[in-house]
């Protein structure tokens, strides 16, 4: 089987920074057509300009994908630009604290909306597009017609009260990945996940700036003794998006330097 995604069309959300941007850049280098989606239009403009040598294979969509109309417009814009879509990477993530005992704290609902409802709604929309694109294929044609990869966090596997909403959302996203994979399999659509530990991103850098002792605590809780770079994630995403993983669905691959193998105590997960 081939790891190639050359000539395929991918939508990558959260593509203005962090892991989403790393995935988008990697996919472009791998020869894919990429629709970079994010709410940060200025950052998208800068990134697309840097990829100007590949301008025919890169487009951008700026909008709030929590809105149903924006999701529909993103799918339409991708199809208009590239005549279809083959891969969805749900990499848009929002991290924030929760006050667990404060009934007026709305962060749980907000974080569930961004980290769970958004990828669910977009996955459903893309899955319908995959099925439409497959109309006319013979019944004995068992080719995969589309793949979806969800980015989640080990915060969903550890108990961190200060990250209640974020942890809940990521645990639910992993379960969504497994359940949706079963629902989509008869339609020849695969869904898998990549669950990451601490990865150097804008949000983590800001968090470490405000929590001076956190870096040492994270390193001490990680057997490999370091924080990952965003560039270490895209190869795994490409594997799950390619034919090399053609019989893999509903699986969550963990990239955390061994962190979830240990009792990390109350160290914050990002």
Quick synopsis:
The protein is of the alpha/beta class and 270 residues long.
Characterise this structure.
Helix 1 (18-29) packs across helix 8 (234-241). This protein has one domain (9-134, 143-198, 231-257): 3-Layer(aba) Sandwich (Rossmann fold), CATH 3.40.50. The chain has a seven-stranded parallel sheet, with helices on both faces. Strands 7-8 form a two-stranded parallel sheet. It is built from eight helices and nine strands. The protein is globular and about 55 Å long. With 270 residues, the chain is an alpha/beta fold. Helix content is 41%, strand content 16%.
Structure keywords:
Rossmann fold; NAD(P)-bd_dom_sf; 270 residues; oxidoreductase activity; disordered C terminus; SDR_fam; 41% helix; alpha/beta; two-stranded parallel ribbon
What is the topology?
Elements: E1 9-13, H1 18-29, E2 33-38, H2 41-50, E3 58-62, H3 68-82, E4 87-90, H4 107-133, E5 146-153, H5 164-184, E6 189-196, E7 199-200, H6 202-210, H7 214-221, E8 228-229, H8 234-241, E9 252-255
Parallel strand pairs: 1-2, 1-4, 2-3, 4-5, 5-6, 6-9, 7-8
Helix pairs in contact: 1-8, 3-4, 4-5
Family: Belongs to the short-chain dehydrogenases/reductases (SDR) family.
InterPro entries: NAD(P)-bd_dom_sf, SDR_fam
Keywords: Oxidoreductase
């Amino acid at each position: 089987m081939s790891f190639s995604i050359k000539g395929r069309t991918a939508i990558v959300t959260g593509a203005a920074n962090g892991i989403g941007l790393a995935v988008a850049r990697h996919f472009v280098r791998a020869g894919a057509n990429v629709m970079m989606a994010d709410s940060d239009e200025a950052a998208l403009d800068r990134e697309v300009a840097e990829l100007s040598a590949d301008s025919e294979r890169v487009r951008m969509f700026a909008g709030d994908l929590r809105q149903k109309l924006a999701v529909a417009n993103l799918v339409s814009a991708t199809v208009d630009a590239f005549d279809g879509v083959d891969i969805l990477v749900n990499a848009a993530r929002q991290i924030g604290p929760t006050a667990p005992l404060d009934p007026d704290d709305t962060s749980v609902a907000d974080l569930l909306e961004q980290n769970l409802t958004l990828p669910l709604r977009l996955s459903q929309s893309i899955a319908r597009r995959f099925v439409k694109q497959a109309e006319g294929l013979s019944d004995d044609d068992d080719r995969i017609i589309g793949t979806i990869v969800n980015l989640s966090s080990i915060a969903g596997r550890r108990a961190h009260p200060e990250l209640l909403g974020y942890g809940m959302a990521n645990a639910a996203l992993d379960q969504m990945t497994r359940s949706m994979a079963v629902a989509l399999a008869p339609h020849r659509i695969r869904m898998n996940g990549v669950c990451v530990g601490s990865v150097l991103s804008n949000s983590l850098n800001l968090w470490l700036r405000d929590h001076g002792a956190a870096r040492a605590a994270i390193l001490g809780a990680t057997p490999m003794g370091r924080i990952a770079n965003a560039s270490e994630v895209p190869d795994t995403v490409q594997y799950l998006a390619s034919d090399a993983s053609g019989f893999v669905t509903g699986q969550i691959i963990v990239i955390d330097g061994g962190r979830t193998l240990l009792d990390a105590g109350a160290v914050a997960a990002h």
